């Protein structure tokens, strides 16, 4: 009996905390690789932090440039979240300057993004569509690939507190490896229809259904803006001056009864049934 070794002392945690963690995240672990993973993970995270949307993605760098892949999204309004993020990851994510900020190395890094501090027109547009005003982005390297998790709040909730940000960061140490495993088992969400951007037919149909009678150039400018092109790029593609593009845009916006590119994009996303007229192939 004297030779019996003493056990190491148990970790100083409350049993209730362990029970909460296993009950909250257990269903997500069980659902890895299935279509229920994102909903289960979203519901599990709600046990710790009140959120309205969850997004998982990954970033890979190559000589050809950076590529952002979409693992999946879910939220309190699943249809709007899915539709909005399908457009975002298809046409804008690769140019989003948020990627690459605070996601270097294996240690989980955190970045808080407020709608008031977002400095790109297009990212503000996506915040507007979902009424998002605060976002917490966490990321880390998992086996050579940077995985990211974003949790968002609409205006019904206050901004994330420092404690809540810390909770999200610690949860990410479990969630991001799960996201990596889910991607390996189920694959990423395909947003590639063979060409970059949104099908011209989808844009033409939406503009054609509008009561506004746009000229061909006004419609072309609107389509280009929705695709994420800058005024300078549109001018170059059309062979006109940037001031001419701005003139076409102002005329089109007046006819569409909107005031900005943000409103144009929001109107498009909320009006087009992406699932029925799929961006997928």
UniProtKB/TrEMBL annotation:
InterPro entries, per the entry: Sig_transdc_resp-reg_C-effctor (IPR016032), Tscrpt_reg_LuxR_C (IPR000792), WH-like_DNA-bd_sf (IPR036388)
Domain HTH luxR-type, residue spans: 207-272
GO molecular function, one term: DNA binding
Pfam family, one: GerE
GO BP terms: regulation of DNA-templated transcription
Source taxon at top rank: Bacteria
Keywords: DNA-binding, Transcription, Transcription regulation
Name this protein carries in UniProt: HTH luxR-type domain-containing protein
UniProt cross-references to SUPFAM superfamilies, sorted A to Z: C-terminal effector domain of the bipartite response regulators
């Amino acid at each position: 009996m004297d030779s019996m070794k003493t056990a190491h002392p148990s970790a100083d945690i409350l049993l209730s905390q362990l029970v909460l963690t296993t009950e909250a995240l257990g269903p997500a672990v069980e659902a890895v690789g299935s279509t229920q993973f994102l909903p289960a993970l979203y519901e599990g995270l709600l046990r710790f932090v009140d959120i309205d949307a969850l997004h998982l993605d990954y970033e890979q760098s190559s000589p050809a440039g950076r590529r952002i892949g979409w693992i999946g999204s879910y939220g309190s309004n699943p249809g709007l979240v899915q539709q909005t993020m399908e457009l975002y990851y298809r046409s804008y994510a690769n140019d989003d300057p948020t990627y690459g900020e605070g996601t270097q190395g294996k240690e989980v890094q955190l970045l808080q993004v407020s709608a008031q501090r977002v400095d790109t027109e297009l990212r503000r547009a996506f915040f507007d569509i979902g009424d998002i005003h605060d976002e917490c982005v966490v990321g880390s390297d998992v086996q050579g690939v940077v995985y990211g998790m974003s949790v968002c709040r609409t205006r019904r909730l206050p901004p994330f507190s420092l404690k809540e940000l810390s909770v999200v960061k610690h949860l990410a140490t479990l969630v991001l490896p799960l996201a990596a495993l889910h991607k390996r088992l189920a694959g990423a969400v395909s947003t590639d229809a063979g060409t970059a951007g949104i099908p011209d037919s989808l844009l033409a149909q939406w503009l054609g259904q509008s009561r506004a009678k746009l000229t061909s150039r006004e419609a072309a400018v609107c389509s280009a803006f929705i695709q994420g092109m800058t005024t300078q790029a549109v001018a170059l593609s059309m062979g006109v001056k940037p001031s001419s593009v701005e003139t076409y845009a102002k005329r089109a916006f007046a006819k569409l009864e909107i005031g900005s590119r943000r409103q144009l994009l929001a109107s498009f996303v909320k009006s087009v049934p992406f699932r029925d007229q799929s961006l997928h192939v």
